[in-house]
Amino acid sequence: MSKMGKVLVAMSGGIDSTVTAMMLHEQGYEVIGITMKTWDYASSGGTKKETGCCSLDSINDARQVSVDMGFHHFIVDIREEFGDFVIDDFVGEYLSGRTPNPCVLCNTHIKWSALLKRADAMDCEFIATGHYAKVNESNGRRYVTKSKDTKKDQSYVLWGLSQECLQRTQFPLGPYDKTEVRQMAADYGYMDLAKKGESYEICFVPDNDYRGFLKRRVEGLEERVAGGEYINAANEVIGKHTGFPFYTIGQRKGLGQAFGEPMFVTEILPNTNQVRLGPVAELLRNGAIIGKTNIMKYESLSGPTDFVTQIRYNDPGSMANVEMMETGDIKVEFMSNVKGVAPGQSAVFYEGDDVVGGGVIMASL
To answer: Which of 137, 239, 269, 279 is disulfide-compatible with 230, CB 3.0–4.6 A?
Structure first.
């Protein structure tokens, strides 16, 4: 048994998780690699060649590194659990006129749960992933902090992790930037891995066409929602669209017709199959209601407090007054109006680089 302890490392076969496992192994941890099969690409009906974390090549890459480094590696099939929860939610959110963030849901409810369950079965004290983030602790509470690499930082998608998860989680890549991680892979002798490209796609939509995925997933959807109306702020009909689930807040391209000026999706009305369009000024909002909240850095929020609030991945964030309501939801009032507040996306509150907590945008104000 290693003096450093036993750690279960989530290995996708990509450079980040592979270097994570190598680092921990080199530091003296007893490493066990685990690759989670979350999705069967063949069942998605996409047209693109299978790539990403669930492909056979990626699984084999993870296994080969484990063999090379001399630690155990296991493959765990969680497709049924993943599909029932994450994909059903993904489809349901779009059919409700919202824009989901499946990576947040998967991290919070699927991946960490699966990791902890297997870690307990294998007597591992810790779990580790290749996320670009850090875990800090103060006043007996653990919380996520931004990584050194601000361009790769993934703290935004980790706001939902519980204290139980954070007590046992390690993010070894937090103190490094991507260039350094690539150099580490090369130094370990994995030149091909060091040159491996990035993947920004949703794992179960590898062709990056969520509209096509919805059409294949929901029988008769295209016919059911075809011929809906575009309306303006005055509720005047200004055109026809192909169905409300195929549009997102802030969308400008792909509207299918010209309006004489740049127009953006400002609201989605699923009950009437209408999509509201307007100029960019009509995308501005001064607040939001946040539900399904998780407060990470503190036990609770006491009174209105000002935090930088990020409303989408790679959003620089905006200063806002944040207040917990009696219902448990959070009301956010932005100091300056922000563009494109999309129900279904996450709102994450930052104090400096620290994640205070977050939640799901239920409505814009």
So the answer is: 239
Structure tokens at 232: 């303006």
Q: How does DSSP classify residue 299?
A: S
Can you tell me the distance from the alpha carbon of 146 to that of 25, in angstroms, rounded to the nearest whole number? 24
Question: Does 53 participate in catalysis according to the annotation?
Answer: no
Helices 15-27/178-187 angle, 10° precision: 60
Residue keyed to tokens 């204290």: 163
Given 54, 106, 124, 165, the catalytic residue: 106
Catalytic residue (choose from 103, 124, 165, 203):
203
Q: What is the phi-psi region of residue 122: left when phi exceeds 0, alpha when psi lies from -120 to 50, beta otherwise? A: alpha
> Tokens 């790769």, residue?
152
3-state secondary structure of 352: coil
Q: What is the mean pLDDT of each run of 10 residues along the chain (365 residues)?
A: 85 91 95 88 52 65 87 89 87 96 89 93 96 96 97 96 96 97 91 72 83 94 95 97 96 93 96 97 97 95 93 93 95 96 97 97 95
Give whole-number Cα distances, 148 to 19, 154, 155, 169, 180, in Å.
16, 11, 11, 18, 11
Asked if 29 contacts 6 with a C-beta cutoff of 8 angstroms, the reply is yes
Question: What pLDDT score was predicted for residue 1?
Answer: 55
CA dist 203 and 52 (Å) reads 7
Q: Which domains does the chain have, with CATH numbers?
A: 6-130+172-194 (3.40.50.620), 219-278 (2.30.30.280)
| Amino acid 54: pLDDT | 53
